[in-house]
Amino acid sequence: MADIAYSACCAGEVGASRVLNCAHTRLNPEASMFESNRADQSKISTMDGPPAANIGLHRDSVEASSDDRFAALSSIGGEYIGEDKLRLLLKKKIAPVCYVWFEPCDMMDIEQGIMKTIYVNKIIQAGCTVKILMADWFLQQHGMIGNDLDKIRDIGNYNIEMWKATGMNLDRVELVWFSDELNRHAVNYWPLAVDVSRKYSMEKMASYSRNRTYGPQTIPAAEIFYPCMQVAAIVCQKADIWLFSMDQRDIVMLARDYAEDINRETKPAIILHNKLPLLPEDPDMNLLRYTARTLFMDDAEAASNRKIKMAFCPPKVTVCNEFLEYIKYVIFPWFGKLELVEKKGNGSNKTYASMEDFVVDYESGNLNSEDVKLAFRKGINNILKPVRVHFISNTEAQTLYFARKLQDKIAADTLKIMLQNREIDSPWYMVDESQERSKFG
């Protein structure tokens, strides 16, 4: 079957905007799960139940102490803004409302799929009412989508299906589409967004755009106004807690500053979860166009294995060894342990109950980096096995998988900005616009 995992994006590279980090051009595309031989489907068996689903089993928040509930939230890691407020909140409220910010992405990596599942299930375990804000409106920044909200909804539904296959406790999650909220509560939302735009300079707002599709001198007004909209979206929701990824810290702090500026009585506690680093050491391999830079939820087992084999994991080095963060943020939270077979040693099995014990052994040289890669490879493929089965065997899942595919074509307004940037950067170089447009269909 043709590679349906192909997804063309804009010309942006590393450091592109939040949305462009979700949609990637696949040069030399890896095989997708659908390329697996359907005849082998009967050989694949699902696990008895994904550990992440067990992590998320809801305990009665009345019986669980506030310390237990805080421990469940603090196990997410990262950074806590307003930690004292969070502790007090858990003592006073049985079911505080936690919003999770998520921007739909046509190419879903394991951070967005597996780690998000772990975090949401832990928040449910802490007794919170969880609402995932599907920030579909913001995906209109994408150079190949534009204002096609139907396509964005398809992409978001594909993401939800991935969470379902991964074991997220969706029965206890409310999915809130931002475009719907905008239509229902426009009278409350837009005055806030406009007020944010009045209180901050254009230079400050432009600093939140990391979209390299656009040059420093030519940037669409949308790139300046989108941060205003995001701040308004954060402030407008009736949330006790927000969960964001660490790369959203700047916009979160801006939202808190704005809330203080308008004397907002209640400001939510913020949890920022860690992000996974990129796999290769070569910086050229970490560009958005290369899929080997990270693991995707739709990767076939052979593709995952190749990426892990290429990953940089220096022996005896634990400081700035980014591969070990995959062990820390994926394997230990999911399985509660790391099982390792020493292929390079005497072939004995080792089981680590904590990241700390594992790090000590690795730093001492008792563990070989290839053995660690093998352990991670087995773990990640076990996690992804039910996902692969689901998308091979479920007709509805397959439909969503195809529906979220983007055309290899840049939107006309994005192309216009790119051409303007080229003219500004190289005014002596006359661009044949008709030829340029033909490249992109």
TrEMBL record:
Signal peptide: none annotated. It comes from the Eukaryota. GO terms for cellular component: cytoplasm. GO terms for molecular function: ATP binding; tyrosine-tRNA ligase activity. SUPFAM superfamilies: Nucleotidylyl transferase. InterPro entries: aa-tRNA-synth_Ic, Rossmann-like_a/b/a_fold, Tyr-tRNA_synthase. The keyword Transcription does not apply. Keywords: Aminoacyl-tRNA synthetase, ATP-binding, Ligase, Nucleotide-binding, Protein biosynthesis. It holds the Pfam family tRNA-synt_1b. GO terms for biological process: tyrosyl-tRNA aminoacylation. The keyword Membrane does not apply. PANTHER family: TYROSINE--TRNA LIGASE (PTHR46264:SF5), TYROSINE-TRNA LIGASE (PTHR46264). Belongs to the class-I aminoacyl-tRNA synthetase family. This is Tyrosine--tRNA ligase. It comes from Lolium multiflorum (Italian ryegrass).
